[in-house]
Specification:
The complex is a heterodimer of chains A (about 350) and B (about 450). Chain A has 13 helices and four strands. In chain A, the strands form two sheets. Chain A has a two-stranded antiparallel ribbon. Chain A has a two-stranded antiparallel sheet with strand order 3-4. Chain A has one domain. With about 350 residues, chain A is mostly helical. In chain A, strand 3 and strand 4 form a beta hairpin. Chain B has about 450 residues and is mainly alpha-helical. Chain B has two domains: about 240 residues, no CATH class; about 170 residues, no CATH class. In chain B, the strands form four sheets. A two-stranded antiparallel ribbon of chain B has the order 1-2. Chain B has a two-stranded antiparallel ribbon with strand order 3-6. Chain B has a two-stranded antiparallel sheet with strand order 4-5. The chains are: A mainly alpha (about 350), B mainly alpha (about 450). Chains A and B meet through helix 2, helix 3, helix 4, helix 8 and helix 12 of A and helix 2, helix 3 and helix 13 of B.
């Protein structure tokens, strides 16, 4: 495996980690707001709070890791993406900042349940994936013009293109689906039947829109970048596996059993699709201006980064194991038997 | 090049850094204070120190949240506002940036573990162990980021041949000459600032009439730590002067309004500038030569050695003075307290002394701001000293001014939010009440 491929694979894996962990968080916020709004009250509040509180900061680190790593392995991306993404990414940043800090304010100040806050928390959770997903659309090419050697983003073209909106739609629906499947399991684990049943209903409900939005993207992609579409067809088997996993997940949810396996299959489903998409995007980071090869850093730096990465993993894996063991898989913690908050 | 984009990019970076650095400094310093308090509490079996640790940890969560989100902001803004710089520098200095994400990762994970496992262990020392990676992770984050900043001041570890970077050595780039003093300075002043900020809170509670021994213990612990770290800052500051004289003499010369290269140079404090003439200043004879070379008669390079377009702005003199004067003031305050305790001076129990300690917290933050402004403005006109000017590194985007307004609004919201929440958190739950109460264990949801 060349260093270029190794680098982009690691980054893509961490971005995938962010997509899953953040989706659970974003979706949970939205479901919570929704349930408060239609006066089902705080059915979800407890479960969500137990899961989110210890992990919200970790979610953010996945994102930081991804963009710092991208600039490290592919410094040329800093120039192209840095120049064109000023506005969209600044907006995402502001949303992330408000959401993250007000989450901390609310949950640690001991004065919870403010309705305006709950709504804002729910809505920003949908706007953040929507605004971040724009970057994927831009990477498909066709929205960047080089004027006087400087890249410029063509906003009008970007926002009138149906591809943009179909990717935005998928990002939102995926967030809701991923979150609902996870919380179905976590609610069950926390012995909160109400929450679990409600989330199961949402998971099943959002499964159809998920398929529709995926098909929508395929159609748009075929028209916008036929080359990428062809590449995806060549990898049909990855997407086929993803589809099968999706169906099994639905069956398990429908039969109300093995929610743990359902979560695992759901993550695998998105994994296959995410990597299928990523591989078919190869070798371009920004079509057609930068590829993983011409933007790659020097070999010495690449090796140093890989060594640092391996060293970092040695620290990370045991630490993440502890988080999983104490908060996610600990039944007593999930249902609130331990309340050891500082 | 787009001149207004350069200006707005500088303004937005200055704004984000000035805001972030408050929370970042607290984020580096406080975990160590919590660790020390909890350790003292466990060792002496003293509930008060354990409560100190616990209450600081609660407040810390709020500041760390702002530190994390603004840190994410500056991390991305580096590429959004300085794309040309990051494309160039990323090839040489990406390693510590990348390592910082791991330090941050470890800190974030263990902070979650620490916060949610209070009283979960039969042996409380195991809980304290969880804080060790938090403190190390926080300090290592500062170390790695400061290494990147040091590299901007004293780049090395590559050769520039026909505009191409060759012969790149990432580790050598990290071990640049600015690194040792800068890293040490950032670390000790973070610990110092944290100690004085927390001491300031204790002094405030005592001034407001709380007679509880809890605050006295806090003040005692913190001022002792404050003395240690402020003295350390003094020593490191002295080494920083020597570093500057050797590797960035124009920064030291501009800070000291030292126009002509000469021997027996005196240190200039405050004053005003009339052309190249310094008026109304306090001059300490030979002190600049001592600071620069440890020798009162040594020659110190003046600004006359540098072309005009490579000299930093002269107002950094005041930033330098503010930093040094506040640093000295804090050493004196802490020293008076420690000496007073040994000698039984009445003054240290007086209200006036509490007011001085109260001022120490905000003043130490002002010193941090002045110090960073000095470090950054003093490097101008360079973004990568000797290789790339700030103007060459900036974005060409026309929308930076709008982003500046948006981020300014964000920081105002975050500043107000964090202050209000912190005040409410401690006002609603004063220490007297918490000492009385015992924690209730919640039932299982849905039962």
């Amino acid at each position: 495996m060349s260093l270029e491929i190794l680098g982009i694979s690691v980054l893509w894996l961490f971005l995938f980690g962010y997509v899953i962990v953040a989706s659970i968080d974003f979706g949970a916020g939205f479901f919570n707001a929704y349930s408060v709004l239609i006066s089902k009250d705080h059915i979800l509040a407890n479960v969500i709070k137990r899961y989110l509180s210890p992990v919200w900061e970790i979610t953010n680190v996945f994102l930081v890791f991804f963009f710092v790593g991208t600039v490290g392995f592919f410094p040329q991306t800093a120039y192209y993406y840095g120049t064109i993404l000023l506005v969209p990414v600044s907006i995402s940043l502001i949303l992330i900042a408000i959401r993250g800090s007000y989450y901390a304010f609310e949950s640690y100040s001991g004065k919870g349940g403010h309705i305006g806050y709950t709504m804002m928390y729910g809505i920003t959770g949908l706007f953040i994936p929507a605004s971040l997903s724009i970057v994927l659309t831009i990477s498909e090419g066709g929205f960047v013009k080089i004027v006087n050697d400087e890249p410029h983003l063509q906003f009008a073209k970007l926002f009138t293109n149906p591809l943009t909106w179909s990717i935005v739609l998928l990002s939102i629906v995926a967030v809701l689906y991923i979150s609902a499947v996870f919380l179905t399991w976590y609610g069950k684990r926390a012995q909160d039947e109400h929450a679990s049943n409600l989330m199961r209903k949402y998971a099943l409900g959002w499964s159809l829109p998920l398929i529709i939005s995926v098909i929508g993207i395929m159609v748009e992609l075929k028209g916008h970048v036929p080359e990428h579409y062809e590449n995806m067809l060549d990898l049909w088997w990855l997407f086929a596996i993803s589809g099968v996993l999706f169906l099994i997940t639905l069956v398990l949810l429908f039969k109300k059993k093995n929610y743990g396996i359902a979560v695992f299959l759901m993550v695998a489903q998105f994994g296959f699709a995410f990597f299928g998409y990523g591989i078919s995007h190869y070798p371009y980071l920004l079509y057609p201006y930068i590829s993983v090869y011409d933007s790659f850093t020097n070999e010495t730096m690449a090796i140093a980064l890989v060594i640092a990465f391996v060293g970092g993993l040695v620290l990370l894996i045991p630490s993440l194991y502890l988080v999983m063991k104490w908060f996610v898989f600990d039944r007593d913690y999930a249902c609130g038997k331990h309340d050891h908050h500082v | 090049m787009n001149d207004s984009a350069v200006m707005w990019s500088r303004a937005l970076t200055e704004l984000t850094l000035s805001f972030h650095i408050v929370y970042a400094t607290i984020g580096v310093g406080i975990p160590l204070m919590i660790m020390i308090a909890q350790w003292v509490g466990l060792k002496n079996n003293d509930e008060h120190y354990l409560l100190l640790a616990r209450r600081w940890a609660r407040g810390f969560v709020i500041t760390v949240a702002i530190g994390v989100v603004t840190g994410t902001a500056i991390g991305l803004q580096l590429s959004l506002l300085w794309p040309n710089f990051m494309e160039l520098a990323g090839q040489v200095i990406a390693l510590p940036l990348f390592m910082e994400t791991f330090a941050f990762f470890v800190e974030a994970i263990f902070l979650g573990l620490y916060l949610y496992t209070w009283d979960r262990f039969k042996n409380p020392k195991r809980h304290l162990l969880l804080l060790v990676p938090v403190a190390i992770g926080a300090s290592m984050s500062a170390v790695f980021i400061t290494i990147v900043n040091a590299f901007m001041n004293a780049p090395q570890g590559f050769d520039l041949v026909d505009g191409e970077l060759v012969n790149i050595q990432p580790v050598l780039a990290m071990l640049n000459p600015a690194m040792p003093t800068k890293v040490a300075h950032v670390l000790v002043t973070s610990y110092m600032t944290a100690a004085f900020l927390l001491a300031s809170i204790a002094a405030y509670r005592m001034l407001r009439g709380s007679k509880h021994v809890y605050h006295k213990k806090a003040l005692h612990l913190l001022l002792k730590l404050g003395l240690v770290f402020s003295l350390a800052a003094l020593i490191v500051g002295d080494f920083s002067g020597k570093y500057l004289a050797e590797y960035q003499p124009e920064k030291l010369a501009a800070a000291e309004w030292h126009f002509e290269t000469k021997e027996d140079a005196s240190l200039v404090l405050f004053g005003v500038l009339d052309g190249e003439e310094v008026k109304y200043a306090i001059k300490v004879p030979y002190a600049l030569s001592v600071l620069a070379h440890n020798n009162p008669f040594a020659e110190v390079k003046g600004l006359d050695q540098f072309p005009e377009d490579e000299q930093p702005p002269l107002y950094i003199h005041y930033l330098f003075d503010i930093m040094v004067v506040i640093g000295t003031f804090l050493i004196v305050v802490a020293a008076i307290y420690v000496l007073g305790k040994l000698r039984g001076w009445k003054f240290i129990s007086s209200k006036s002394f509490k007011r001085i300690v109260l001022a120490g917290g905000p003043l130490s933050l002002i010193a941090v701001e002045a110090g960073w402004w000095f470090a950054e403005v003093g490097r101008q006109p360079w973004i990568l000293r000797g290789y790339m000017k700030t103007a060459e590194g900036a974005t060409t985007s026309g929308q930076v001014d709008t982003m500046l307004i948006l981020f300014a609004g964000l920081y105002i919201i975050l500043a107000i939010g964090s202050i209000v929440v912190l005040i409410r958190m401690f006002r609603n739950n004063p220490i007297e009440r918490e000492i009385e109460e015992h924690k209730q264990v919640e039932g299982c949801a849905g039962q």
